[in-house]
Amino acid sequence: MTAGIDDIAIYIPRLYIDAEDFAKARGLDPVKLQKGLGVSQMAIVDSNQDPAILAANACLKIMQKNKLSPDDIGRLYVSTESAFDESKAMNSYVIGMLEQVYGQGTFEHCGGIETKFACVSGSYALYDNTNWIRAGEAEGKHALVVVSDIAKYDMGSSGEMTQGAGAVVMLLNDEPRLLQFDPKVTATSIKDEYDFYRPFGKETPIVHGQYSNMLYMIQVRKALESYKKKVVSSGLVKMEPGETILDHMDYINMHLPYSNMGKKALAYLVRHEWRQLPRWKRILTEIGIEEPIPKDPRGTIESVLGDEEFMTKDHEFTKLFTKTQEYQEVFESKLASSLIASTMIGNLYTASLYLGFRSSLEYEYQKGVDLEGKRVGFGSYGSGSSAMVFSGVIQPEYKEIVKNMNLVAELEDRRRLTLEEYELLHENRLTPDKSMLHSKKEFVLVDVKTDAESRGERRYSFNE
Ligand code: COA
User: Fold this and answer.
1) Which helix (H) or strand (E) is 170 found in, with range?
2) Distance CA 374, CA 212 (A)
3) Is the Cβ atom of 309 under 6 angstroms away from ligand 1?
4) Does residue 332 line the site of ligand 1, with CB under 6 A?
5) N or C: which end of the chain has fewer CB within 10 A?
6) Residue with CA closest to ligand 1 atom 16
7) Predicted model pTM
8) Which residue has its alpha carbon closest to ligand 1 atom 13?
9) Which of 452, 414, 375 lies closest to 14 in space, CA to CA?
10) What count of other Cβ atoms lies within 10 Å of the Cβ of residue 317?
11) How far, in Å, is the centroid of ligand 1 from the Cα of 455?
12) For residue range 28-58, what is the model confidence (pLDDT) as tens digits?
């Protein structure tokens, strides 16, 4: 049985901080954010918003757009790393909110959980729900998988320039109009690591940024190796001599903690794939310098990062590699469109990969490319750490969905925060009733109880 993504919707909070304002306040060169990281604006949540609200607003949008009733939905999963309760799952809050619109008990039949594995858990949720459909258990119903996060780092930390917030919801079924997942090729890799984590009770993560970036690339490469084996053994793709698996992906979407991380990760993967092929000789000639090797090629990530001479040379080599014409063609045709949304919104943790997918669809369509039958590869990564590589094929009815996508219009009535306003929000100094915006047709947080008996209980309402 087939299964995949039928439709996709996003909800992005309407407040943002501009890279220019942020850099000025932190004494940074704005070009570091804009060009070095690919961050122009970062979406920020209001004081009456939390990750469950972002998820619920996205779900309502996709249900209304597709005229779905709660009876049409068999499962609702929320994937997040911004959980605010150690036990009560975020999908229960989302269902509570949706029932304010659709009626008490209307989602009673709808199973689901909250999934956690840093930024990769949404991909596991998609995989599990796809298999629920493939197993024939959906009985004609759809699944909703919502990835929702608030990427928030300590003030003054290096992570603070890679923040953002938002939710992406995907409607899954057995006759998807957008993307059908390739069966039996999804591949994972996993390793117990501390590159990025958020201990109980702490609102912001502990991050080893450069370590995490390198681990991300290594883990995705491992998952790609396993994907390659599955693709060949399942007969999905026939690899001719001199080809790489990436040649068989028309589009590649990478996890984007910031837009330029996609560039970094693609360059790393392509470089490792091409190195084994005859074309590498030609590329090396064009680059004009030798490919550097670390002092201890079998060393740890720490030893490689600590090898300053190698890191400098490798940086130079990568820069030259990414300027080669062959690499530029791969970058422009397979990845570039997926990076656009991230520059305007920032880091969405679990939702970053899927915002990238949404971005790629919209901007490739705008270029006039016929997307039907194109294979999309996904490189998903979650700190702690696990990677997942999988793929799918764009379906003949995709235009029905993609022709109406308009990210700029969706972000149109955003408000640029002053740095003082941003800091008030960041430090949680505003209560929900003192929100910056008065939103209409959206769920909002009214109150979080503080008394001993009901501590942590959240009250939400739908603003008509
Ligand atoms: N003008 C233009 N570019 C500049 C610049 C300037 N003035 N200053 C720096 N840059 C470039 C750097 O060369 C670098 O580019 P490169 O990656 O091509 O080398 C880029 O900007 C970032 O600079 P860097 O010095 O590496 O930044 P940093 O160490 O201060 O922090 C992160 C960057 C991403 C590590 C940090 O923001 C972070 O930890 N963020 C959280 C990321 C995360 O969540 N990671 C999890 C992985 S899933």
Assistant:
1) strand 164-173
2) 31
3) no
4) no
5) C
6) 36
7) 0.97
8) 36
9) 414
10) 18
11) 39
12) 999 999 999 999 999 999 999 999 999 999 9
